[in-house]
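pls design
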């Protein structure tokens, strides 16, 4: 499989290493100052594009990929206000777009556990949910895309929770979400339910970012010959 890498920072380099080890070829690398590469013969030869760039460049990158009818595996967060436009472009199999807020297999298992726990906790209104995420200091968006997915799943499954809000803002019946930036932490996410008498807590902690890179390559292997809007639920089939 021929892969175009959009964004060639630490994650892009890890994706390259893993993709090559799995028998794939990196035919094109596009970084912030190489926009012209979208119109190159190398980009045209790609079977799929894997995009890990920055929030303010991501949507424009996707539009350039779609202009060349290239399937996209999207790893950038912080642009989700335009997700509706992406989904509309994928209707009827016009384009291929694979999105995950987190490409780690372990995190996607954690998503399932979080949804199941939220459905249980819907019955026990003495417990108040809260979420905390910690990432490296280079992360540009807050809260993380993973935290947003976790928070949305709690809100969607607990009737007494009307929404979530980023600390320090607090609202009655809203789940507080804390975003902490510290050192080179790959990613820690904790969902906690507090009552007067005890608390219940689930945590996912990444040991390395290589798990995210592997997941992105596996997603590209899954998506490159498919059409429409895709995600981890389609690939993992929990």
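designed seq:
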């Amino acid at each position: 499989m021929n892969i175009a890498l959009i964004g060639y920072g630490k994650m892009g380099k890890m994706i390259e290493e893993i993709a090559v080890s799995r028998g794939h070829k990196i035919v094109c690398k596009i970084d912030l100052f190489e926009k012209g590469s979208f119109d190159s013969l190398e980009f045209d030869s790609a079977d799929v594009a894997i995009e890990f760039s920055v929030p303010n460049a991501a949507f424009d990158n996707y539009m350039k990929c779609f202009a060349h009818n290239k399937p996209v595996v999207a790893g950038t967060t912080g642009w989700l206000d335009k997700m509706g436009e992406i989904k509309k472009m994928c209707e009827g199999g016009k384009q291929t777009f694979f999105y995950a807020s987190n490409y780690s297999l372990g995190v996607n298992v954690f998503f399932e556990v979080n949804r199941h726990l939220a459905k249980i906790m819907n019955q026990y209104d003495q417990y108040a949910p809260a979420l905390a995420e910690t990432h490296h200091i280079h992360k540009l968006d807050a809260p993380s895309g993973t935290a947003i997915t976790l928070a949305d799943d709690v809100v969607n499954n607990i009737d007494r929770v009307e929404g979530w809000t980023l600390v320090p803002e607090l609202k009655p019946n809203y789940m507080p979400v804390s975003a902490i930036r510290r050192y080179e932490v790959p990613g820690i996410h904790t969902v906690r339910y507090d009552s007067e008498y005890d608390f219940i807590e689930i945590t996912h902690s990444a040991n390395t970012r290589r798990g995210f890179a592997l997941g992105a390559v596996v997603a590209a292997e899954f998506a490159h010959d498919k059409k429409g809007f895709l995600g981890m639920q389609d690939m993992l089939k929990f």
